[in-house]
Amino acid sequence: MFEQTFLMIKPDGVKKKIIGDILSRIEQKELDIIAMKMFQITRELAEIHYEEHRGKEFYEDLIKFIISGPVIGIILEGEDAVKIIRNLAGKTNPKEAEYGTIRGDYAFDITKNIVHTSDSRISAQREISNFFKKTEILNNIK
Question: What's the domain count of the chain?
Fold first, then answer.
């Protein structure tokens, strides 16, 4: 199914300077990058993004980490984009992620796990609208 998804390179991925490798892996999967930008997430936006984890013991650690440095948000498009990017990222817990995945190759901690990926088409739509303005998306569509 042709669809859009969202991927975020988190502050640890930016700091480790592995942006190029992550983009290269995406391109090898023949997904189109529709929009991409580097930005700093505000606490308010982080709370919206991690709303489903509010009240859990790790919630505050997630918030502190995601606002600790710049991130790169990317809208991707292609056949089965959500599934492809989830597989490319690897399991959320890097200790369980296979080598050859982004988290399996670069991450060491479940909170600082290099990338965030949408887990469904519905999540992708919500996350894209949270992090990108409609004009940013429309201006980048070919």
Answer: 1
| Range of the structural domain that residue 46 is part of | 2-140
Could you say which of 116, 118, 124, 131 is catalytic?
116
116 is catalytic: yes
* Cα-based distances in Å from 93 to 17, 60, 122, 131: 21, 18, 22, 24
Residues 108-136 have pLDDT tens digits of 999 999 999 999 999 999 999 999 986 55
Reported pTM: 0.92
Q: What single string gives the DSSP state of each residue in 70-92?
A: -EEEEEEEEETHHHHHHHHH--S
CATH number at residue 113: 3.30.70.141
How far apart CA 26 and CA 20 sit, in angstroms, is: 10
Give the three-class secondary structure for 7.
Answer: strand
